[in-house]
């Protein structure tokens, strides 16, 4: 048999080693799996109850899920006794459009169990672009998403013009899978040039529609637009497309009538406005494609529209995040309240350790307290840095759910200090100051209720963006540690529900039907988690972007293994060097 078999294998070109390996597998009592995860507590992403089981992986797919103790060790084996196994997390709201050019691990999202990211959100991105206009897109991304321009200038190789050419350029190996949306701002700038801040003509609209359709046909996962009045360019102008007409939006929407995939993301300040909702509903009904809108506590009309469309088997998913809109203020961050003081400006070029020491010196503190502040022109910035009732010292548990006793104003009163002294003490200790936007009611019940609503979809991590003020790429870990385990100021949610919201639910919205479940036949994207010891690290500023650019990041511990496409990419938080991830092309799974 061996001789005959080897002769046959030589004829068909199969190497001897592969044949010998197969014989050994037969001798061991059957086909050995590439990877087994045994004795696991499985939360499979469906929302159903956890169960004990073994998982077999062959190639990039889950081959089978069996009762615990059923499988023999595979070629690679993970003993998951006492550990949770979940699908890899699918993060649908990131801004890695430039970072994927230089960071093939796609950090920090990959540190937090994310195995799929969707970028090109908020209408901003880097394609299409006319040669010579690249700097303008960099400037817009830097202004809107707080990504250091030096990093983008030095890290992006450029060389593309169309969106399909951009996809080809980023079609390289990664630690995670990536997918991209067509950004309205870039499309408008490409079509209209210097007129991109003006009203579009019928010709402009048709050109934008055609570019969007071509991008979808070549693999874009969707289209995104920003109608948010906080998205400004460096000159203080609303980004192109903010005030685009309903006609323009509906014309671009026609691109989805001719393809069988694609999701539309809309960021809008007008989701309670009847005219805004009218064109949104028109696009959903004429295209049949799903729309997701960014939604906060207090919105009502968008939820009603979502319910009406759901009755007709149409999809509108209000997108909500793990935390309320907020920022962190640190000495090294984009927003630093000490910059309002001349005394601090004189030392702000010193190493951070020396600046922290200065904040503790009595003479320096006395000078700060005696100085008149140099307030910024922006009223929101003034409020963020000086409304001490709404500035909180981040607690040790990193809960983002402070009480009144955590506010700078309350702590100053209790310590018989000036609020500025509390600010200096906090920053000197290396702790962040938390600022919430809008009215914070003293708890996160409104946020929890939005997440729990079956109409909502989980997003808004902004991974790769807001480098000087946010660490929200860590929200998968935050949701599992805080909202399912550690919360004391209100009800928790079950790990089964949260895992579903971060896996199968997000995957399906973007048509990624091959992932998000621990089930035979699905993509082998898996996390092995020490749930009891899962924890977030404190935020820290690192200077690892191209050109020495900085970003605020937050690590984690408790991820025993992360697996993408059947390959272990992280063990105990350390990258294995493997890059099995790929570019996802919409409609081509």
Would you give an account of this structure?
The chain has 589 residues and is an alpha/beta fold. It folds into three domains: 1-31, no CATH class; 89-323 and 444-526, TIM Barrel; 327-436, no CATH class. It contains 20 helices and 24 strands. The strands form five sheets. Strands 1, 2, 3, 4, 5, 17, 22, 23 and 24 form a nine-stranded mixed sheet that branches. It has an eight-stranded parallel sheet with strand order 6-7-8-9-10-11-12-16. Strands 13-15-14 form a three-stranded antiparallel sheet. Helix 7 (202-217) runs parallel beside helix 8 (246-253) and helix 9 (274-287) packs parallel to helix 10 (301-311). The chain starts with a helix and ends in a 14-residue tail after the last strand.
β content, as a range? 15-25%
Q: CATH homologous superfamily of the largest domain - what is it?
A: Metal-dependent hydrolases
| Overall helicity | 25-40%
Per CATH, the class of the largest domain reads Alpha Beta
* CATH fold field value of the largest domain: TIM Barrel
Blueprint (SSEs and pairs):
Blueprint: H1 2-12, H2 16-27, E1 35-42, E2 51-58, E3 61-66, E4 76-79, E5 84-87, E6 89-91, E7 114-119, H3 134-145, H4 149-155, H5 163-169, E8 177-183, H6 184-192, H7 202-217, E9 222-227, H8 246-253, E10 263-268, H9 274-287, E11 291-294, H10 301-311, E12 316-320, E13 326-329, H11 342-345, H12 352-360, H13 362-370, H14 379-386, E14 391-393, H15 408-415, H16 419-428, E15 433-436, H17 445-452, E16 457-458, H18 475-486, H19 495-502, H20 504-509, E17 526-529, E18 535-536, E19 540-545, E20 549-553, E21 556-557, E22 559-564, E23 567-571, E24 574-575
Parallel strand pairs: 1-4, 1-5, 6-7, 7-8, 8-9, 9-10, 10-11, 11-12, 12-16
Antiparallel strand pairs: 1-2, 2-3, 5-17, 13-15, 14-15, 17-22, 18-21, 19-20, 22-23, 23-24
Helix pairs in contact: 6-7, 7-8, 8-9, 9-10, 12-16, 15-16, 18-19
């Amino acid at each position: 048999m061996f001789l005959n078999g080897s002769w046959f294998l030589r004829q068909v070109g199969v190497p001897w080693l592969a044949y010998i390996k197969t014989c050994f597998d037969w001798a061991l009592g059957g086909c050995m799996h590439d990877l087994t995860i045994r004795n696991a507590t499985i939360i499979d992403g469906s929302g159903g109850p956890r169960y004990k089981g073994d998982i077999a992986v062959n190639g990039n797919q889950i081959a089978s899920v069996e009762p615990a103790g059923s499988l023999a060790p595979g070629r690679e084996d993970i003993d998951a006794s006492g550990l949770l196994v979940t699908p890899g997390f699918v993060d649908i709201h990131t801004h890695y459009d430039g970072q994927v050019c230089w960071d093939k691990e796609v950090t920090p999202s990959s540190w937090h169990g994310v195995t799929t990211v969707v970028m090109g959100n908020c209408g901003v991105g880097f394609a299409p672009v006319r040669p010579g206009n690249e700097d303008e897109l960099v400037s817009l991304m830097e202004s809107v998403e707080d990504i250091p321009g030096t990093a983008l200038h030095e890290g992006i190789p450029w060389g593309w013009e169309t969106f399909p050419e951009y996809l080809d350029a980023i079609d390289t190996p990664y630690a995670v899978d990536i997918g991209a949306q067509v950004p309205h701002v870039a499309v408008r700038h490409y079509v209209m040039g210097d007129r991109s801040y003006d009203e579009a003509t019928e010709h402009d609209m048709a050109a934008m529609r055609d570019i969007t359709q071509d991008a979808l046909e070549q693999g874009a996962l969707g289209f995104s637009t920003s109608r948010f009045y906080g998205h400004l360019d460096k000159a203080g102008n609303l980004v192109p497309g903010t005030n685009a007409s309903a006609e323009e939006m509906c014309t671009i929407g026609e691109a989805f009538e001719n393809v069988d995939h694609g999701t539309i993301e809309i960021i809008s300040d007008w989701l309670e406005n009847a005219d805004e909702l009218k064109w949104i509903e028109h696009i959903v009904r004429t295209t049949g494609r799903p729309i997701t809108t960014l939604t906060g506590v207090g919105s009502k009309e968008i939820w009603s529209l979502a319910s009406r469309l759901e009755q007709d088997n149409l999809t509108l998913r209000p997108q909500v995040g793990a935390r309320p809109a907020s920022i962190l203020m640190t000495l090294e961050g984009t927003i630093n309240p000490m910059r309002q003081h001349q005394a601090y400006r004189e030392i702000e070029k010193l190493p951070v350790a020396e600046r922290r020491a200065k904040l503790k010196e009595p003479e320096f503190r006395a000078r700060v307290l005696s100085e008149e502040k140099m307030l910024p022109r922006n009223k929101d910035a003034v409020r963020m840095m000086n409304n001490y009732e709404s500035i909180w010292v981040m607690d040790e548990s990193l809960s983002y759910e402070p009480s009144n006793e955590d506010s700078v104003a309350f702590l100053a009163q209790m310590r018989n200090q000036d609020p500025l002294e509390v600010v200096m003490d906090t920053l000197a200790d290396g702790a962040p100051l938390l600022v919430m936007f809008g009215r914070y009611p003293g708890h996160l019940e409104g946020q929890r209720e939005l997440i729990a609503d079956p109409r909502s979809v989980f997003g808004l991590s902004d991974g790769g963006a807001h480098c000087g003020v946010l660490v929200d790429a860590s929200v998968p870990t935050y949701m599992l540690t805080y909202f399912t385990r550690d919360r004391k100021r209100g009800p928790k949610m079950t790990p089964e529900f949260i895992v579903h919201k971060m896996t199968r639910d997000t995957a399906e919205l973007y048509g990624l039907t091959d992932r998000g479940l621990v089930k035979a036949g699905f993509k082998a994207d898996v996390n092995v988690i020490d749930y009891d010891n899962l924890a977030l690290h404190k935020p820290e500023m690192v200077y690892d972007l191209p050109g020495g650019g900085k970003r605020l990041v937050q690590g984690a511990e408790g991820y025993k293994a992360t697996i993408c496409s059947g390959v272990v990419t992280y063990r105990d938080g350390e990258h294995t060097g493997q890059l099995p991830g790929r570019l996802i092309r919409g409609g081509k799974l």
